[in-house]
Design brief:
With 285 residues, the chain is an alpha+beta fold. It is elongated, with a radius of gyration of 21 Å. The longest helix has 20 residues, at 251-270. The protein starts with a helix and ends with a helix. 45% of the residues lie in helices and 18% in strands. Helix 8 (199-215) runs antiparallel to helix 9 and helix 9 crosses helix 10 (276-284). The chain has helices spanning 5-9, 13-25, 34-41, 45-57, 75-88, 125-134, 146-164, 199-215, 251-270, 276-284, and strands at residues 61-64, 70-73, 94-101, 105-111, 115-121, 173-177, 180-184, 189-190, 228-231, 234-237.
Length: 285
C-alpha cells in the first residue's frame, strides 16, 4: 500500500495522537495493549477502538493476537508521522507520485521550496536480522523494531550526504525526520538503463567521486550500476545508508567490492579493460 496525502490530511487529531503513542510505546512493546493505549490517551474504549479501526483501514496500524493482543505502528503510520512533522516545518508542501523503489526504500517526488525527493527508508521485517548483524549502526541488544532500524538507516544516509556535500556528486540532503530523508531531486536515470556514448569518461567520473568520497571519510558500501544516476553529463552517486568510514575494520574489503561491482559492469557491458586491483590502489594512494 502506498502513502496517500489524502489519508494523511483526513487524520483526526485523536488518530494522530494514537500514532504518536504507538511510536513511543513500541520502544518497549512489540504489540501495544489496548488498555495501555486507552489509559495513555485518556479516551473511552469505544472511541479508541473506533480511531484504531480507521487507522487500520488506511494501513497505518496493525492488530495481532500473537503472542498477545495488541496494536503496532507499521510503515505507513510511521511515514505519516514523518510527513506531518516535515509539513509543519514547511520543508514539504505537497506529495507527488512515486518515482523509485529499492530493496529497503521507496522514493517520492514532492514540493518544498522547490522540487525535492522524499526517500522513505523501509528496512523490512524479513531483512531485519540481517541488518542487525551486518550494519554497524544496529545494536546487538535491546528491543528495536524494524521501524526504528529504518530511522537509523535514514539518519545514516543524511549524515553521509552532509559529509559528501559539496565535493562529491551526491544528492544534497535538505532535512530528515524519522525514516524520511528530504533531498535534492535528481531528474536523471540510473546507469543500468543508459547506453553511454563515452563509457570510459563516465567510468572515470565515477572513480573520481569514489576517490573524493574516500578522502572525506565515506565509503559507499553498496555501490553498483543501480545506484549511479546520470543527469545529462553529471554523474550522481545515490543510496548511502550503508556507508562506512575508512577506519572501519573491513574498509578496504568493502571499498574493493564497490570497485569490483562497477568495473565488472563496465567490462561486461562496454568491454572496458580495467583491473579493479589497480583502481583500488589508485584510490588508496
Amino acid at each position: 500500500m502506498a502513502i496517500s496525502a489524502e489519508d494523511i490530511r483526513q487524520l483526526h487529531k485523536y488518530e494522530i495522537r494514537i500514532l504518536h503513542i504507538l511510536e513511543r510505546l513500541m520502544r518497549t512493546h512489540r504489540w501495544v495493549p489496548l488498555d495501555l493505549i486507552r489509559r495513555t490517551i485518556n479516551l473511552s474504549e469505544s472511541e479508541v477502538l473506533y480511531r484504531l479501526g480507521r487507522l487500520m483501514d488506511v494501513g497505518m496500524v496493525r492488530y495481532d493476537t500473537v503472542p498477545y493482543e495488541g496494536y503496532s505502528l507499521v510503515f505507513l503510520g510511521y511515514d505519516a508521522l514523518a510527513l506531518l512533522s516535515l509539513t509543519r516545518k514547511g520543508v514539504v508542501k505537497a506529495l507527488g507520485c512515486q518515482i523509485g523503489e529499492g530493496k529497503e526504500s521507496v522514493v517520492y517526488e514532492a514540493l518544498g521550496l522547490g522540487q525535492v525527493a522524499l526517500k522513505f527508508h523501509h528496512v523490512g521485517q524479513r531483512s531485519f536480522q540481517t541488518v542487525r548483524v551486518s550494519r554497524e549502526y544496529m545494536g546487538d541488544e535491546g528491543h528495536c523494531p524494524w521501524i526504528f532500524a529504518s530511522q537509523s538507516s535514514a539518519e545514516r544516509e543524511y549524515t553521509a550526504l552532509a559529509r559528501l556535500h559539496p565535493r562529491v556528486q551526491a544528492p544534497l540532503g535538505i532535512d530528515r525526520n524519522r525514516n524520511v530523508v528530504v533531498m535534492e531531486f535528481i531528474p536523471g536515470v540510473n546507469l543500468n538503463r543508459c547506453i553511454l556514448e563515452d563509457p570510459e569518461g563516465v567510468f572515470e567520473e565515477i572513480l573520481r567521486n569514489i576517490r573524493v568520497a574516500y578522502e572525506v571519510g565515506v565509503i559507499h558500501a553498496d555501490l553498483s550500476e543501480f545506484n549511479v544516476m546520470l543527469d545529462g553529463d553529471r554523474v550522481v552517486l545515490i543510496d548511502w545508508p550503508q556507508w562506512v568510514s575508512p577506519d572501519h575494520p573491513n574498509a578496504m574489503e568493502i571499498l574493493a567490492r564497490d570497485l569490483e561491482n562497477i568495473t565488472k559492469y563496465f567490462q561486461r557491458k562496454y568491454s572496458l579493460r580495467v583491473d579493479p586491483r589497480e583502481v583500488l590502489e589508485g584510490i588508496r594512494t
